[in-house]
Amino acid sequence: MDSQFLMEIMEINEKLAEAQNEAVIKEIESIVRGKQKEFTENVSRAFEQDDFEKAKEILTKMRYFSNVEEKIKLKKTPL
């Protein structure tokens, strides 16, 4: 993983951990969904071009964002 991507994930996780209201959570959720949509398009293109290394890299990034999505769900669910 490149350091810029990992920094982005860390920042999103920090924002989510510090989120005190629904608006902030929804903003983070929107960012994550946009990234996942972009990654989905890119991974499809990589597979179409038989670029399996690129597809693997994108799928790994998608897994990180999927983990963030799970944290968002937990944050939105009242205890």
TrEMBL record:
One of its GO terms (biological process) is [2Fe-2S] cluster assembly. The keyword Mitochondrion applies. Gene3D superfamilies: HscB, C-terminal domain. Pfam families: HSCB_C. Keywords: Chaperone, Cytoplasm, Mitochondrion. SUPFAM superfamilies: HSC20 (HSCB), C-terminal oligomerisation domain. The keyword Chaperone applies. It comes from the Eukaryota. It is found in: Cytoplasm; Mitochondrion. Residues 1-73 form the Co-chaperone HscB C-terminal oligomerisation domain. Its main location: cytoplasm. GO terms for molecular function: ATPase activator activity; protein-folding chaperone binding. GO terms for cellular component: mitochondrion. Belongs to the HscB family. This is Iron-sulfur cluster co-chaperone protein HscB, mitochondrial isoform X4. The lineage of its organism: Eukaryota, Metazoa, Chordata, Craniata, Vertebrata.
